[in-house]
Amino acid sequence: MKKPGRSMDWDGAVNAWHVAGGVYRMGRREWLTEAGWRQAYDDGIRTVIDLRNEAEAQRRDTDPVVGRAAWSGMVVVSAPTEEPGDPRFTAVTGPYLNDPAHYPENARLFPDKLVGVFRELAAASARGAVVLHCAAGRDRSGMVAAMVQDLAGDSGQDIAEGYRRAARGINERYRTHGPPHARERYLGEAELVPLLQERGEAVAQFVRSLDTRAFLLDNGLSAAELDAVRALCGAGVSR
To answer: Where is the Tyrosine specific protein phosphatases domain (predicted)?
Structure first.
């Protein structure tokens, strides 16, 4: 098992990290090459959970050409964290979630969606390791990863650092490849460092205020499913 917080060097993967136990995170799966899929499989990945909305799950012209056989032996499931275009949410976040200050609103408006993600994690635990991904691998992945780290018993500092690593990872992608649209841009160190300090603290505060375990149980995750997720995270069962 890889050390938590380690960058994963799957070929083509962007912003890929080990979160806790058998849980990993990354940006778009379409960035992976066939070699990258084989490497992920060799690292034990058997389930890919796509946190994006259905319309986002498309190949781009710049993505590598990869046949479906590349992820043979893995299960790919869709588990969006939000209702796309919900005006209550976009009034707070704008077109998409890109700030941990808005994670609590995501949890408030779409608790069933987040429980759905953890239900998929519970189901995946019987197959092997799991990689979560959104588009950039920063905020939707970051929100769920922080909840996973909370269940795993990580400290607030570790949870904050998990977000900061991923935010740095996609920022570096923007430096080398350019941002995907005008709402994103590459940030130099003078601007990036204080922003990451603030946002990392916001992520840690989110899970501490949420109480991940209670939130999931109160919103329909079963105790058995929670135990399966905790075991996947390397935390054992909750009693």
So the answer is: 112-147
Q: How far apart are CA 85 and CA 94, in angstroms?
A: 9
Q: Please name the residue that has the structure tokens 């498309």.
A: 58
Give the pLDDT confidence of 56-100 residue by residue, as tens digits.
999 999 999 998 899 899 999 999 999 999 999 999 999 999 999
Report which residue type is found at 26. M
Secondary structure class of 221 (helix, strand, coil): coil
Would you say residue 204 lies in a domain?
A: yes
The residue range of the domain holding 218 is 17-232
Q: How many angstroms separate the CA atoms of 10 and 37, rounded?
A: 7
Neighbours of 149 (CB within 10 A): 29
Q: Are 167 and 138 in contact (CB under 8 A)?
A: yes
Tokens matching residue 100: 């941990």
pTM: 0.95
- Chain-wide mean pLDDT for the chain? 95
Question: DSSP secondary-structure letter at 135?
Answer: S
pLDDT digits (tens, 9 = 90+) for 143-167: 999 999 999 999 999 999 999 999 9
CATH code, domain with 105: 3.90.190.10
pLDDT for residue 4: 58
- Which string of b and e fits 22-37 if b means at least 16 CB within 10 Å? bbbbbbbbbbbbbebb
